[in-house]
Amino acid sequence: MKTAIVFASLTGNTEAMAEVLAGELNGKAEADVFDVSAQSFDNPDAYDAIAFGSPAMGEEVLEEDSFEPMFSAIESSLKGKRVALFGSYGWGDGQWMRDWEDRCAADGAIVVGSVIAMGAPDDEAVSRLKELASAMLK
Predict the structure, then answer these.
(1) Which helix (H) or strand (E) is 89 found in, with range?
(2) Which of 47, 60, 128, 136 has the fewest beta carbons closer than 10 A?
(3) How far apart are CA 7 and CA 51, in angstroms?
C-alpha cells in the first residue's frame, strides 16, 4: 500500500505528529512524507491513503500560507480516497478539525479518523496517532 503524509507545521507540533505517523507506517506501507512549506504535493492519485496535517490558525482554520492553497487545489481528487486528518492547536475546542472532517466528507473522501493535540502531542495523542496509522491501512 502506498501512503502519503502531507503536513504544514509552524512550531513543530504538527511535524512531530507527522513523524509519529511515519514511524508507525514504516515497514507496513510505503510512506512518502511531504512538508508543504518546503515541497509541493500535487498527485494524490498516486496514493492509496493520505494523512493530512495542519495546525489550527486564526479563527480555527487550516494553515493559510502553504497548506490551505495546496489542499484546495487537490481536494477534488479525494473522492473515494482513504483520508486521515491530524493537527495541533493552542486555543478553541477543535472546531477547525470538525469543519475539516465535514469538508473532506463533502469531497467524497473516506475519512478514517482524526487526531488533534493541544500543543505538542502528549502520550494520549501519540497512542491515537498510532491507531490512526492502522486505520489508514485497513
Answers:
(1) strand 82-89
(2) 60
(3) 8
